[in-house]
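Forgive a beginner's question, but might I ask you for the amino acids of a protein and the tokens describing how it folds?
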Amino acid sequence: MPPIADLGLLPESAAEHQGGTTLCADAPWASACRDPDTVEGFAAVVADYADRLWAAGVRPGEVVALVKANHLDIQALQCAAVRIGALPALLSAAMDPADLLDCLRDLRRPHLLTDAVGAEVLRPWREQLGALVPRLLTLTPGAGLDGAVELGETAPHRVTRHHGTDPTLITHSSGTTGKPKLVVHTVDSLYAHVASQIGVVRSLDHAGISAKCLSFVHVRMSSGLLTVLNTGMPFLGITSPGPARVCETLLRYRPQALEAHPNMFLRWEALAHNTPNPFAPVERFISSFDAIHPRTLRTLLEASDHPDPAFIQAYGQSETGPVTVLMLTRSDVRGAGLSSRDVGGVFPGMTELRVVDDDGSALPDGTPGNIEVRTPARAESIVGRAPLPGRDTWWPMGDVGVLRPDGHVELHDRQVDRVPGVPSTLRAEDVLLDELPELAEVVIIAVEGTVTAVTATAGGTPVEEERWRRARRAAGLPEDTAVDHRPWEEFPLTGTMKVRRNRLPSRAALG
């Protein structure tokens, strides 16, 4: 079928062409009319949700803010809202409550749709909610906020068709560097996230399942759904990143492709040594968020039983979609010196990238500076912010890196995360993880002027002092680098499992 970019119409169209294709979640659809396991079933759930939203009084042009448990049903609810002409705003229930309230305030009195998980997060703030949202809707009978109306009644809805420049979706940035931004995507900008990917997927053998363990409110999941429904790729949504649950799910479904956030893959490294091995059938590992550590790449690719597995890494952000792409094989990662700094080259004919100094002047290849891009996938606007410049202007990514003569981009740091005396925290963290296999996580920050390594080990025991000193020297860190060892569970994370570096110093400063 020809590509369709309208999220409201796409499920129905996909059901007509490939209704029997697998599309399912690893956990029950608690709020849906059925537990769909095919594209046809997914489309039926979307239509039912659209009837329920319509019966609840949601109408074209209105904003529906969604705060609920992480599950594939978020994507069905999103499609249902778009189908009736509303504008869905997908907010993570894992967001800091103060940030969540700020987002609701910026959305200017949206409908608020929650379930038991969302209600639990918002209940302490019930008095403030009354001034921020005109109506509370709940998917969970008896577990909503006081005064919430259950989304139970149905009424035939009216379908709204969307054109390329129409706003179709609001998602939010991770908030690793401050308050999350509410990013508005149009039909065209969202489709540009995946236009080239759809062509690639159609050229591949994708008879096996593509599994994604992501934050289902992230724009990557919405663009992923566009790809899945346009190509007929069998799909599995994994709801929880817990290693035991993930292992069970992978062994049950045996996916051909597996996508997750980089820190999820890092956390799953130990699963590669399980018997049976859950990664054995995976041919393609995919990540499109932060740069991923080389140790994790090696572990995953070596764990696959496929003769030539690949890791596909994309670099981008919520506002731009993917900017560069890199594909690595076993032979690429077995050599010494591999760094997560290399995130590949731009998408030909679609994205432009340059590196500039602080005054905006382009720098020669190999010179570190600020990364800027131009892409048709850039978002339309940011809620509560000044209008964005046209897509023909250069967009600052907020990252420091270099453009190599071969066209590949190397990341050094986020601009706000730079640590004086450390040329690249990314490189230093890569080296430490390679030198110290027991590390489950390490983050380099500055605390009151002192370079500090915040660490967690798989077994919970701090790294032996002499081994730490050797690893520190290999990483090029100063001799007086402090170590703050803490349990992995105490690392402050976003909904996409990025470490919130700006929240780490509080405890480190006490040491």
